[in-house]
Write a structure and sequence with these properties.
0% strand, mainly alpha, 87% helix
Length: 157
């Protein structure tokens, strides 16, 4: 029988996953539509919100996932010895590396460029170059946690 502590950790872990995955998927969705609009006001607004929601929700989700996930892994004998935990963690870490090395710096550049839109009312080519890079690596960084989700739910051996 599962302990109340385990069930509480699992509930918090799932909550962290919902916040994390929900934010990265929904943010990408409405940002794509903002860019499609080609309206500098909508793009500037959405770019600011990408930065703010990542700070509020993505990082909060990551924090909850990591803290509870490492504790839950101990229930299975640790994360290095269980195939599905190990690979799930590796895909999650790979996504985090992409975020830290590529996506966060790109978001900061996009945020700074978008802050200047109101001065010129035109969207510079530089924005679209960085936006394309953000979209490509963002797709990869989103697929990786979804693969992690697969490992955590199906627990393949």
């Amino acid at each position: 029988m599962m302990s109340q502590h385990y069930l509480l950790l699992k509930t918090l872990h799932i909550f962290g996953v919902i916040i994390f995955l929900g934010n990265i998927v929904v943010t990408a969705f409405w940002k794509i539509f903002a860019d499609i609009s080609q309206d500098w006001r909508i793009i500037a607004f959405s770019q600011r919100l990408v930065t703010y929601t990542d700070v509020c929700f993505t990082f909060l989700g990551i924090l909850i996932i990591v803290i509870t996930g490492l504790q839950l892994a101990n229930s299975y004998g640790g994360y290095w010895h269980v195939y599905w935990i190990f690979w799930g963690l590796m895909f999650f870490i790979a996504s985090g590396v992409i975020w830290m090395i590529l996506l966060i710096p790109l978001q900061i550049k996009l945020h700074h460029i978008a802050n200047k839109f109101s001065d010129s009312k035109t969207i510079p080519r530089e924005y679209w170059i960085y936006e394309t890079m953000w979209a490509i690596f963002g797709i990869i960084a989103t697929i990786l946690p979804l693969v992690t989700l697969y490992f955590m739910v199906f627990k393949p051996s």
